[in-house]
Structures are given as C-alpha cells and as structure tokens.
Design brief:
There is one protein chain. The protein has 12 helices and 10 strands. By secondary structure, it is an alpha/beta fold. The protein has 2 domains: about 230 residues, 3-Layer(aba) Sandwich (Rossmann fold), CATH 3.40.50.1820; about 80 residues, no CATH class. The protein is globular, with a radius of gyration of 20 Å. It starts with a strand and ends in an 8-residue tail after the last helix.
Length: about 325
C-alpha cells in the first residue's frame, strides 16, 4: 500500500471545450500527496509527470508484475531521504491515442489545458509552491517530448525538466516507420477506410501488426500537420500513392522537433535551472541520438544538465524515474527553515 495518499479528482478543462475530436472536457487529475502532507502545513514543490503516447492519467497506476509501480517508486525515494514533492499525473489522451501535449487545431489546446486548467486546479486545491523554481515537468517518450514543448510555449511556468527517451530528431524517430504506415493505408484503401477497419478491429479483437505505425503517424500528423478538410483532419507527410515525402508538410513537422526548436530559439530553455536527459542505447526509434543532440544544445548555460545513457530499449523503462526524480527533488526550491 502507498505510504502517501493518491487523490483523484475530476477537472473541467475549459481549454478543451469544443475540441475537434469530441474528446472529454472532464479529465481525471490524480495527485500523489506524500506521507506527512498536511493541507494546512508546509507548501510543497510540484512535479508534473506526462504519460507517453497511448497512455493516460490513470494508466500510471496499472499493476506492475514483479516490480514496483510509480507510487512505490515515489515512496522509496522519499523513504531514502529524497525531499518530498506533490506529483501530478495529467491526462492527455485523445481519440488518436495522444496529443503530444501541444496546442493543435487537430486535437485541441492540450498545452493550455495543462498549464491553465490542471495547474490552476492543483494550486487552488493543494498546498503548493508556485514559482518556476519549485515546479518540474517530465515524462517518457511523448511525455518527455511534451516537457520540451511546454517550456517552449509557456515560459516562466517550469524551472526544471526530465526528458526520458523523448521524441527528437524526427528523421530517425519517425521516417523509418513511414513506409510501413503507407503500405497499411494503401492496403486499406486510404485513411478513412483504415480508420473504420481499425475501430472495428480494436472493438472486436485487438490492434494488428501494422496498426501502431499508422495510429502513431495519424496522431503525430494531428499535432504537427492538422487539416480539418482532410480525412480524420490530418495532412500526411508523404504522398499516399508513392510514399514520397511531401517536403512542405515534412517541414511543418520539423518545426516541432525539439532538436530544431531548441537550437533555433534557445531563450525559453536558458531560464531553466535543471535538465535531466536520458535514453537507452538500444532505443528502437533511435531516440538516443536525439537525446545526445539535445544534451549538447543545452549544456553550458544556466541549467544544471545531467545526460545519461543506459543499456536498454524504448519500452519498460519507468525505472529511470528513480534517477530523474531524485535529481530534480534536490534542485526544487523550498522555503528556508
């Protein structure tokens, strides 16, 4: 049993009103309150953990066979002497599997949802410290990606980030999957026909072999190249007849690549105090190379930067939060006693 208390409230997310996919405006907002938390007592720093693609707020708490879950990991960190903090688990799931935590006409305003609706609720409800020096955001995969985007788009909200296996350097992490996705879409007869078949498949049985490549493509296109006039409201980054890259659309994707936007506009990241970056050396999407590029771009500035690599792939690496959260906890600003 957790030593602290998991408080799950429902938040009305005004930023998602009238979102184009009809996704829920009411979202669960789990907050883990460490052992000893007293709403009338000391105020705590806040760490926001962003789930990965096809994850959800409540998915963090699924049983982990043979190993500790995220609440067990937090309890163990605090028991070891790591200074406690409140942990927030927002929900960014969409009809296509995920929002990348960005504001997009294709999905809705998920960045604003997090900063205004979720953090606003957390600050009104719990004893929090509200300065950027006392707030961190982090996540794995699309959650790590979202951490970079939130700092980019909402300066002065977070002073610390943890980026685990984040989508970065899109040539390596997305391009290799395009031929597989194109083949599946052509076999199905196009985007809309594939979607109808996919909905039927997951309702009656389960996802098929190439389904992940396609749903990932569509979700990323909804974030990076939305177009409400196209099937499912997305423009593909390649010609569906030949799979040749559409350079104009692909350029719009590259504008959202952390390696590009950190290099081209470093100012939002210069205000950060702490940056933790890691990735497995056997990451199936080549994200270890993007992580290396990002680490080089942000090293040498104001922030204390930690960049680590480890022998593992992309999946099943939640244990790496032990490293990042221990690092960030010691960097979060707290009232002097």
């Amino acid at each position: 049993m957790p030593r602290g208390r998991l408080d799950i409230q429902t938040v009305h997310c005004a930023a998602l009103a009238d979102n184009p996919r009809g996704d829920p405006v009411q979202r669960p907002c789990p907050v883990y309150l460490p052992e000893g938390y007293d709403p009338g007592g000391a105020r705590y720093p806040v760490v926001v953990l962003l789930h990965a693609f096809m994850g959800s707020a409540l998915g963090w708490f699924n049983t982990q066979p043979f190993g500790p879950g995220i609440l067990d990991r937090l309890d163990a960190l605090f028991a070891s002497g790591v200074p406690p903090f409140l942990t927030v688990f927002p929900d960014g799931f969409t009809a296509l599997g995920g929002s990348q935590w960005v504001d997009s006409p294709g999905n809705g305003a998920y960045g604003q949802m997090l900063v205004h609706d979720v953090l606003g609720h957390v600050d009104r409800t719990y004893a929090t410290l509200r300065s950027p020096s006392s707030r961190a955001v982090g996540g794995r995969s699309s959650g790590g990606y979202g951490s970079w985007q939130l700092v980019r788009r909402f300066t002065g909200v977070f002073g610390h980030i943890a980026s685990h296996s984040a989508d970065s350097y899109f040539e390596y992490c997305y391009l290799p999957e395009f031929p597989k996705a194109a083949s599946a879409l052509v076999r199905a007869g196009g985007v809309q026909a594939w979607w109808e078949g996919f909905e039927r498949r997951v309702r009656e049985t389960k996802m098929g072999g190439d389904d992940h490549a396609v749903i990932n493509l569509l979700a990323m296109a909804s974030a990076y190249s939305p177009d409400v006039a196209q099937p499912l409201g997305v423009t593909l980054p390649f010609d569906l007849r030949t799979a040749r890259i559409d350079e104009e659309v692909w350029a719009s994707w590259l504008e959202e690549d952390p390696v590009r936007f950190v290099e081209e506009d470093p100012d939002p990241f210069r205000s950060l105090e702490s940056i933790f970056i890691d990735c497995g050396t056997r990451d199936e999407f080549g994200l270890n190379w993007g992580a290396r590029m990002l680490a080089r771009l942000v090293t040498g500035g104001r922030a204390k930067v930690v960049h680590e690599e480890y022998e593992d792939g992309h999946m099943g690496t939640a244990y790496r939060f032990d490293r990042s959260l221990a690092f960030l906890a010691g960097r979060l600003e707290r009232p002097s006693r």
